[in-house]
Design brief:
With 115 residues, the protein is of the alpha+beta class. The chain has three helices and three strands. The chain is 22% helix and 7% strand.
């Protein structure tokens, strides 16, 4: 493992353990957009962006990691989740833990799906 990769993992681990409170300048080096697996009925690609999900004023990785989405100790391939379905989200799984409740709902496809 490279020094840079180890440092990045330590920063992420610190954010997870401390809820982001120790990172006064917000989260450095947020991961780039992550294209999620596309289901057969998907109207377009969904790309997850941390920038639109993390409050830089009070970053809190633990709201999603590691409970909903694992990030440490596995390779990028292993971290990939199976396609997320609307049926699962409507039950509060994956993105549905917030979307449809705290964040915007499922009635506007363009909020997540690119044409």
């Amino acid at each position: 493992m490279t020094h840079e990769r180890m440092t990045r993992k330590l920063v992420v681990a610190a954010a997870l353990l401390l809820g982001g409170a120790a990172l006064a300048d917000g989260l450095p080096n947020l991961p780039q957009g992550l294209a999620l697996p596309r289901g057969t009925d998907s109207p377009g690609q969904v790309t997850f962006n941390h920038e639109s999900h993390v409050d830089a004023a009070k970053p809190g990785c633990v709201s999603c990691h590691p409970r909903r989405f694992a990030i440490l100790g596995r390779s990028a391939t292993e971290r990939r989740t199976p396609a997320i379905t609307h049926a699962a989200m409507e039950k509060g799984e994956a993105c549905g833990a917030c979307h449809g409740k705290q964040a915007f709902g499922f009635d506007d496809c363009t909020g997540c799906h690119a044409g």
